[in-house]
Specification:
- Helices cover 4% and strands 50% of the residues.
- The longest helix is centred in the C-terminal third of the chain and has 5 residues, at 101-105.
- The chain has 122 residues and is mainly beta.
- Strands 2, 4, 5, 6, 9, 10 and 11 form a seven-stranded mixed beta sheet that branches. The chain has a four-stranded antiparallel beta sheet with strand order 1-3-8-7, with no helix packed on it.
- The termini are far apart.
- It is built from one helix and eleven strands, in the order βββββββββαββ.
Length: 122
């Protein structure tokens, strides 16, 4: 059974850094596009970052230059390294995976994790 398990969320101060991890089972990282979405209270879910099997990446406008997505093929794990965090980054962050780049970016990912809370204080 395919599972995506996020970890690394927590409370950080504005300007701080945090790294989220998504451990995948049942799928191979290099054979899928993977990414992170987030949803804050009162807001719709938005794409944060995505990485294709080729290594190509895409970032939401609000996180460009601050967040970095990467993967470890051996561990079937994708990471989201977040720096210069802002209070508006506060949200539940969800890991997602799809066999296609288009599928992942279209909010129609095949698989989703349960989410991990990130809270950035002022």
């Amino acid at each position: 059974q395919v599972q995506l398990v996020e970890s690394g969320g927590g409370l950080v101060q504005a300007g701080g850094s945090l790294r989220l991890s998504c451990a995948a089972s049942g799928i191979i990282f290099e054979s899928n596009a993977m990414g992170w979405y987030r949803q804050a209270p009162g807001k719709q879910r938005e794409l944060v970052a995505a990485i294709a099997s080729s290594g190509s990446t895409k970032y939401g406008d609000s996180v460009k230059g601050r967040f970095t997505i990467s993967g470890n093929n051996a561990k079937n794990t994708v990471y989201l390294h977040m720096t210069s965090l802002r209070p508006e980054d506060t949200a539940v962050y969800y890991c997602a995976a799809d066999r296609s780049w288009v599928g992942l970016l279209s909010y129609r990912a095949d698989y989703w994790g349960q989410g991990t809370q990130v809270t950035v204080s002022s």
